[in-house]
Write a structure and sequence with these properties.
With 503 residues, this protein is an alpha+beta fold. It folds into two domains: 1-139 and 188-270 and 446-503, 3-Layer(bba) Sandwich (FAD/NAD(P)-binding domain), CATH 3.50.50.60; 142-185 and 273-358 and 388-422. Helices cover 22% and strands 22% of the residues. The chain is built from nine helices and 21 strands. It has helices at residues 14-25, 55-67, 124-138, 151-162, 190-194, 250-257, 391-411, 474-494, 497-501, and strands at residues 4-10, 32-35, 82-84, 94-96, 140-141, 171-172, 175-179, 185-187, 203-206, 209-217, 220-228, 234-244, 274-281, 315-318, 326-332, 351-358, 367-375, 381-386, 412-414, 419-420, 457-459. The strands form five sheets. Strands 1, 2, 9, 10, 11, 12 and 21 form a seven-stranded mixed beta sheet that branches. Strands 6, 13, 14, 15, 16, 19 and 20 form a seven-stranded antiparallel beta sheet that branches. Helix 1 (14-25) runs parallel beside helix 8 and helix 3 (124-138) packs across helix 8 (474-494). The longest helix is centred in the last third of the chain and has 21 residues, at 391-411. The radius of gyration is 23 Å and the shape is globular. Mean pLDDT is 88; it is low at 66-74 and 293-309.
Length: 503
């Protein structure tokens, strides 16, 4: 064994980092190791890539790490820092291999689930408190874009369309954004969750290290077999418990490769079908004294600041409700997503992008599975995906297209017709290790994240969420990770090391 820890966490994304933070905060002196196959993007471990001020340096760094000095898990390099899986039925399915995982790239929207989105296997009061803790860890606020111009007009127009007495009103999107000492806005990456975690005694972040197999003794995990991707050296790390939070693809992959194969493993894969539209806010909603931005870039790709948040980037929210199963993100864009007519001038925040996420019907036949006859670059079973839309999904998408088109017209002049993004585009992958109340073949873990049939193996991430949702999943996943860490800390405190050694 190359060292022994109380807890090994596989994956340094928002959930893995939150679990490690909560375990360390428990104050019980637990030794925690976090394994990450990738490297840090920039100088801050787990920092959001859009906070890298030097655009050329950011692009150079990400281009290098997308391919890597050594092969990384995943398929074709896609957007910076991520790789496409290569699934025909979900062509835009991607994974991220770097410190912070997809949390170094996400759009930071953090709405709470409501109505039938809420997991019914967790007591409501317990979940509410965990969601509040997750909001604290992620630095969630609804005031990040209070300075954004024209936001009030956008929200008034959309509120007239969608507000009802039984629904949450249109308003500011809860976002994970922090304010720097200089007053600048910064995206929350897992570095914000970590705080000083990586400098604490007893906590270690080990990068460039891939978990290949869980070591088992009956129903107990005793450690993890790892490989150093730079040298190829393999070793074993001992652990009293393991939490696998390696994303919706690699978490079930590691369990499968280790012989941990609950009936529901990899099944109930779902994401959010995504419909996009854009509009130029009508002049009647623009104050006469609003400044004209004649230097507005023609397309978003040319936007200044390399993706950094600027005050015009208002982010509004059309919340999900059971009687309209869509969740809307509305961004007042720093640039038009399509070329504007020659001579057209717009005010800052006047170009409005709309993204509607649909609630997808659950099915055990939508799944990720693992090919034992083919392997990836590290000898793990190759990832395969079976994914299809049901008749209900198709009807939902058509209804969302109609609704988003109506919203674009109400706001002003639509910039083209609404369009549906290819499957996988949302980057919100749920269900492949879903939790449940009972070990009945429809879930992989209990409400604390403990894998059925094991004593000390836990899973975390968006993949644990058991419900069909429309809202962004990260806040919910981090809240469930908080519950996992609390349960695990209590379990370890109740079982002394000496007692485990003789179990």
């Amino acid at each position: 064994m190359s060292g022994s820890y109380d807890v090994v966490v596989v994956g340094s994304g928002p959930v893995g980092t939150a679990v490690a933070r909560e375990l360390s905060d428990a104050g019980s002196g637990l030794r925690v190791l976090v394994l990450e196959a990738g490297e840090a993007l920039g100088d801050t471990a787990g920092g959001h890539v859009k906070n890298i001020a030097d655009v050329d340096e950011r692009d150079r760094l990400l281009a290098g790490l997308a391919t890597g000095p050594a092969p990384l898990p995943g398929g074709t390099p896609a957007r910076p820092g991520t790789a496409l899986i290569g699934a025909a039925s979900m062509p835009n399915a991607a994974m991220s291999t770097n410190v912070g995982g997809m949390g170094a790239h996400w759009t930071a929207a953090c709405p709470r689930p409501v109505d039938d989105e809420v997991p019914d296997c967790v007591e409501p009061a317990v979940l509410d408190e965990a969601l509040a803790r997750a909001e604290e860890l992620l630095a969630v606020t609804t005031h990040a874009f209070d300075r954004a111009p024209l936001t009030g007009a956008v929200q008034r127009v959309l509120g007239e369309l969608f507000d009802r007495p039984h629904r949450r009103p249109v308003g500011a999107m809860p976002v994970a954004v922090t304010v720097g000492e200089d007053g600048a806005l910064h995206w929350t990456g897992p570095a914000i969750i970590a705080g000083d975690l990586w400098q604490r005694p007893g906590v270690e972040l080990r990068t460039g290290t891939l978990a290949r197999r869980l070591l088992l003794d009956g129903d107990r995990v005793t450690g993890v077999e790892v490989v150093d991707l730079a040298s190829g050296e393999r070793s074993e790390v001992g652990a009293r418990a393991v939490v696998v939070a390696a994303d919706a693809w690699r978490t079930p992959q590691l369990l499968w490769a280790s012989g941990v194969r609950p009936e529901a493993l990899g099944r109930y894969l779902t994401e959010h079908p995504q419909i996009m539209a854009a509009s130029v806010l009508d002049e009647r909603y623009v104050p006469e004294d609003a400044p004209v931005d004649t230097a507005l870039p023609v397309t978003a790709a040319a936007a200044p600041g390399g993706g950094a948040i600027v005050p015009v980037s208002g982010v509004s929210w059309v919340p999900y409700a059971a009687d309209r199963p869509f969740h809307g993100q509305v961004m007042q864009m720093d640039a038009s997503p399509v070329p504007l007519d020659p001579g057209v001038t717009v005010r800052p925040g006047q170009v409005v992008g709309l993204g509607w996420f649909c609630r997808k019907e659950l099915s055990p036949d939508n799944r990720v599975w693992f090919d034992d006859d083919a392997t990836d670059a590290h000898g793990l079973p190759a990832i395969r995906v079976d994914y299809a839309l049901s008749a209900a999904d198709t009807a939902s998408i058509e209804a969302a297209k109609t609704e988003i088109a109506e919203a674009a017209r109400a706001l002003g002049r639509p910039l083209g017709d609404p369009f549906v993004m290819p499957p996988g585009s949302s980057l919100h992958y749920l269900g492949t290790t879903r939790m449940g109340r009972a070990d009945d073949g429809t879930s992989v873990c209990d409400p604390t994240g403990r894998v059925w049939g094991t004593e000390n193996l836990y899973v975390g991430g968006n993949n644990v969420i058991p419900t069909a949702t429309a809202c962004n999943p990260t806040l919910t996943a981090v809240a469930l990770g908080v519950l996992t860490a609390r349960s695990l800390a209590a379990s370890l405190a109740a079982t002394p090391v000496a007692e485990e050694a003789h179990a």
